[in-house]
Design goal:
The radius of gyration is 24 Å and the shape is globular. It is α/β, with parallel strands linked by helices and about 130 residues long. The protein has 4 helices and 5 strands; from the N terminus they run αβααβββαβ. The chain has a domain at about 45-125. The longest helix has 16 residues, at about 65-80. Helices cover about 35% and strands about 20% of the residues.
Length: about 130
């Protein structure tokens, strides 16, 4: 590296980036970027509690990847508004979701949800 930074200089060759040539930008090692991306990906994925999985199986509820994506978007919208525990209503399915952990706590189909009172929630998101 011929244009090394010397003591007392802020920029290589004494010029700020963009003046007199291309900027020298230090990129993080690929491994570091991959780890942070993986951590972000893990934190952003939708999870189901064991209870929710059992209820979905008992009630014959199955969701396709594109449906899960729509639900995850609804959870992100709830999170943006500061929600902690939210009722997500999606095409005849009611789900109670812990928003910070992005975890579906329980799920009900339309027939099971009718007449129920949902407590300990601070928000509701309706997806059509």
């Amino acid at each position: 590296m011929a244009d090394g930074i010397r003591i007392g200089h802020l920029y290589p060759a004494g010029k700020p980036p963009g003046i007199g040539g291309p900027a020298h930008v230090r990129k993080p090692p690929a491994g570091d970027a991959g780890v942070s991306f993986q951590a972000w990906l893990k934190a952003s994925e939708l999870k189901f509690s064991r209870h929710a999985e059992m209820r979905m199986q008992q009630r014959g509820i199955s969701l396709k990847p594109e449906q899960l994506s729509e639900i995850a978007s609804a959870i992100e919208a709830a999170e943006a508004k500061g929600a902690k525990d939210s009722l997500i209503l999606y095409r005849g399915i009611a789900m109670i979701v812990n928003v910070p952990s992005k975890t579906v706590v329980t799920a009900l189909d339309g027939g099971s949800a009718e007449g129920n009172v949902f407590t300990q929630i601070d928000s509701a998101v309706v997806i059509s």
